[in-house]
Amino acid sequence: MTKPAFVYVTYISTTPEKLWQALTDGEFTEKYFFGTRVESDWKEGSDVSYSRNGEVTDYGKILKCEPNQLLSFTWTYKSDNTPRESPTLVTFELHTLGNTVKLTLKHENLLESDIVDGHHTFEGFNNGWPAIISNLKTFLETGQTLPAISI
């Protein structure tokens, strides 16, 4: 049986190099990821963590890292007490289309309990990821972030 997944696709007027830096550089993520900083050495098998105000909120292990093309890692939400056989999986795929990059975000290995009445309830799925990716797109295209929102 296939487990539920969350998929989000957007097109960003940028280069793959700039988008990659925005995904992997903590100073960039703090700007569009609502104060959340990513940390890793971006080598397969290495740790990755997301922290806000110095406290780790999410963490995992790098599974694949192909600069400017593909980034995949396990994802554990620190406050998630749902019993899981394995962590969820986050993948960013970048595809160049002229002066645009198609960004596909996949958050996989979800559980049926992560979905209630057809809606993702786990923080970061239905509200968080679209807001984060929209803010990333706006930041890369304009140099500004969206007005403050609470996710």
Report on this structure.
This protein is an alpha+beta fold and 151 residues long. Helices cover 21% and strands 40% of the residues. The chain has 3 helices and 9 strands. It has helices at 16-24, 26-32, 128-142; strands at 6-12, 36-40, 47-52, 55-66, 70-77, 88-97, 100-108, 115-116, 119-120. It has a 7-stranded antiparallel sheet with strand order 1-7-6-5-4-3-2. A two-stranded antiparallel sheet has the order 8-9. A hairpin with a 3-residue loop joins strand 4 and strand 5 (70-77). The protein is globular and about 40 Å long. The relative contact order is 0.22.
Query: How much beta, percentage-wise?
Result: 35-45%
What assembly state would you assign to the polypeptide chains in this entry?
Answer: single chain
The total count of helices amounts to 3
Structural class: alpha+beta
Distance between the termini: 31 Å
DSSP E strands, number: 9
Q: Brief overview, please?
A:
This protein has 151 residues and is of the alpha+beta class. It is built from three helices and nine strands; from the N terminus they run βααββββββββα.
